[in-house]
């Protein structure tokens, strides 16, 4: 009887948490530099790249059969964001919206898919640039508020602070399901913990942002935290209805751009609205 051949030990990869950390940590100093000290054009350009990738990911989930439609969704998302951030002109924004509408109509008529798919196809051709470009462009706009970069950091604190706290509080104390059909692991207790963390983060940030009073910080924390949780659930709906786990794979351990900015996409407009209409920027 021959001896069994000893197999070499298999190499273990990084755990999920370690992979997430290894992906994000090298990016943190670069992102902070762009936010606070980089040239004025760099941060909005970085955001536009994220918008283009996010548009491609969303179209890939909802209209996976056509690379052309993915590319069109990516381009129009970035174009809509560009018009909002760089042109800051109502006529230019309206022109881009008309291009999106006409393009959606043309693409829908030219596709050979069965006619019953046309309305879904047209809906995502219209909705993708408005959703991805329209929300994430606020991440670029809030950098223009004084002091430079601090309002972007506030937006991130509201989004990711709430998300992180909701995760850990939910794991420790979660009993009541928040939206079991959409995201079975999310709980009301976790949601409450996330809102509390957003409020605390906003109050701390208000120390460095003199235009935000403590009461306004509390209100902004509640609204921004709730908006971020709604954005998280929205992307969960999109993924679950598309039968995918992640929106993409560009960020190892995190998934795609939409997986990482789902909450940020909704806290950013909330923060911008406060800064623009209440703080007076």
Question: Topology, please?
Answer:
Layout: H1 16-24, H2 28-36, H3 42-62, H4 67-87, H5 90-110, H6 118-141, H7 150-173, E1 177-179, E2 183-187, H8 188-206, H9 214-242, H10 257-261, H11 264-278
Antiparallel strand pairs: 1-2
Helix pairs in contact: 3-4, 3-6, 4-5, 4-6, 5-6, 6-11, 7-8, 7-9, 7-11, 8-9, 9-11
Plain-language structure description:
The protein is 70% helix and 3% strand. It has 11 helices and 2 strands. It has helices spanning 16-24, 28-36, 42-62, 67-87, 90-110, 118-141, 150-173, 188-206, 214-242, 257-261, 264-278; strands at 177-179, 183-187. A two-stranded antiparallel sheet has the order 1-2. The protein is globular. It starts with 15 loop residues before the first helix and ends with a helix. Residues 1-11 have low confidence and may be disordered.
Low-confidence stretches: 1-11
Radius of gyration: 21 Å
Structural class, from secondary structure content? mainly alpha
The average pLDDT score comes to: 89
Largest sheet: 2 strands, antiparallel
Shape: globular
| Strand arrangement across the biggest beta sheet | 1-2
| Sequence of secondary-structure elements | HHHHHHHEEHHHH
Helix content: over 70%
Q: How many H/I helical runs?
A: 11
Head-to-tail CA distance between termini: 82 Å
Total domains: 2
SS elements, strand count: 2
Taken as a percent bin, the fraction of beta residues is: under 5%
């Amino acid at each position: 009887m021959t001896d069994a051949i000893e197999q070499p030990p298999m190499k273990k990869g990084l755990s999920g948490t370690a992979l997430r950390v290894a992906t994000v940590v090298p990016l943190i100093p670069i992102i902070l530099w762009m936010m606070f000290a980089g040239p004025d054009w760099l941060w909005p350009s970085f955001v536009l790249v994220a918008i283009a990738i996010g548009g491609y990911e969303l179209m890939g989930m909802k209209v996976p059969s056509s690379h052309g439609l993915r590319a069109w969704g990516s381009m129009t998302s970035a174009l809509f964001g560009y018009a909002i951030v760089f042109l800051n002109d109502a006529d230019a924004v309206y022109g881009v919206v008309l291009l999106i509408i006409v393009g959606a109509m043309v693409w829908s008529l030219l596709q050979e898919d069965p006619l019953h798919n046309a309305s879904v196809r047209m809906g995502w051709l219209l909705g993708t640039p408005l959703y991805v470009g329209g929300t994430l462009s606020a991440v670029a706009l809030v950098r223009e508020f004084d002091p430079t970069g601090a309002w972007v950091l506030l937006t991130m604190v509201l989004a990711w602070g709430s998300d992180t706290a909701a995760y850990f509080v939910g794991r420790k104390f979660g009993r009541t399901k928040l939206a079991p059909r959409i995201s079975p692991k999310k709980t009301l207790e976790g949601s409450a913990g996330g809102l509390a963390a957003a409020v605390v983060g906003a109050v701390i940030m208000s120390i460095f942002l003199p235009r935000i009073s403590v009461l306004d910080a509390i209100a902004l924390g509640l609204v921004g935290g709730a908006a971020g949780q709604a954005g998280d659930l929205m992307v969960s709906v999109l993924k679950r209805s598309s039968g995918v786990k992640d929106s993409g794979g560009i960020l190892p351990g995190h998934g795609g751009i939409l997986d990482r900015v789902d909450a940020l996409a909704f806290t950013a407009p909330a923060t911008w609205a406060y800064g623009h209409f209440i703080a007076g920027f």
